[in-house]
Design goal:
2 domains; mainly alpha; 51% helix
Length: 334
């Protein structure tokens, strides 16, 4: 939860700008606040504007008294020092450092280019930390079938006082068939679903809406859950239209869904520490690309990727396809 009292005015202005002009999601706004606040605390430490002398205590520094005169003094070396501090102190990975660097770039672009609050942008030529290219982890087709089969089984004795298997089965089915993000699934409302058109609308990154098409498995799973979904005693206006509810009859939370996925993975005999909700998204994308003969542009649209470069990672996950393509070359037998 963001407490604007703890922030300098210019940071709160930046968050408002990100919320309105950039149309960033609430989660993105929270990340921006955390990243920039941490950066400003480091700056106070680096500029010796605090009594704190231990790097491990930087997060305790207050920044509500910071002004733009201090921001004007920041140079590129200070930003790189911050990224180095994150790597050394928290063992931050290149992907994390890249995200922090991106936030800092957006922040200084706002201060310098958008609002002219400062005269020089120290992050203008900021380079992203070099990232290792890693292929996404995903379940095999056999593991995916096992997970779905396990989730479909009544598990009242395992899922607490209630048999939530119908709900959990629908959740697993949507993840593995549609490749949606965690926040997208949690945010589904009943009126977002059109069984006539075989699709539902989800809100993705940047509050962008897109259509997700439902195959027979998804439609059957959702309809089965809607038949038993509680209607009486639902708590809160937000939950009345929510597709998935918790046992407390509230809109299901991110944490609960993560717990459900870990639980179902474990029941299916799959290491829950190796896979996660996001890995199910990777699984759906990989299976569609590998077995569905899906065009890369169509996969980009389905996954809601802003850049096709993000989607292209799925073209490299299957060496068998590459080998088959080479073998099918018409010149192969000459």
């Amino acid at each position: 939860m963001i407490d604007p009292i703890n922030n300098p005015i210019f940071l709160n202005d930046f968050l408002d700008f990100s919320n309105t002009a950039l149309n960033k999601s609430p989660n993105s706004i929270k990340e921006y606040n955390y990243d920039i606040a941490h950066f400003l605390k480091f700056i106070k430490f680096r500029f010796r504007m605090t009594d704190v002398r231990d790097k491990k205590e930087i997060k305790t520094i207050k920044i509500d008294d910071m002004d733009l005169k201090t921001i004007e003094k920041i140079v590129p070396e200070d930003i790189y020092a911050f990224l180095s501090y994150l790597k050394d102190t928290y063992n931050s990975k290149p992907a994390t450092l890249a995200r922090k660097a991106s936030t800092i770039r957006i922040f200084f672009h706002y201060l310098c280019n958008k609002t002219k609050k400062i005269s020089t942008n120290p992050a203008q030529d900021l380079e992203n930390p070099k990232q290792e290219k890693r292929l996404p982890k995903y379940l095999s087709l056999e593991q995916s079938k096992k997970l779905i089969a396990t989730a479909s089984e009544p598990q009242a004795n395992i899922h607490g006082n209630h048999d939530n298997s119908t709900r959990n089965y629908a959740i697993i089915t949507l993840f593995l068939n549609c490749g949606m993000r965690l926040s997208e699934l949690v945010g589904i409302n009943i009126n977002d679903i059109s069984f006539e058109d075989n699709k539902l609308n989800v809100i993705g990154k940047g509050n962008k809406e897109r259509a997700v098409y439902l195959n027979n498995a998804c439609q059957k799973a959702i309809k089965a859950y809607l038949q038993i979904r509680p209607h009486d005693g639902v708590r809160g206006d937000d939950a009345r239209n929510a597709l998935f509810l918790s046992e407390q009859k509230k809109r299901i939370s991110n944490r609960t869904v993560q717990y459900i996925v870990k639980q179902e993975l474990s029941l299916a005999g799959i290491d829950p520490n190796k896979y996660s909700v996001h890995k199910l998204r990777h699984t759906a994308a990989t299976l569609m690309y590998k077995y569905g003969d899906v065009d890369i542009r169509a996969l980009q649209e389905l996954l809601g990727h802003e850049s096709i470069a993000t989607t292209q990672i799925y073209t490299h996950v299957d060496n068998e396809q590459i080998r088959t393509a080479v073998e099918k070359n018409p010149l192969a037998d000459l």
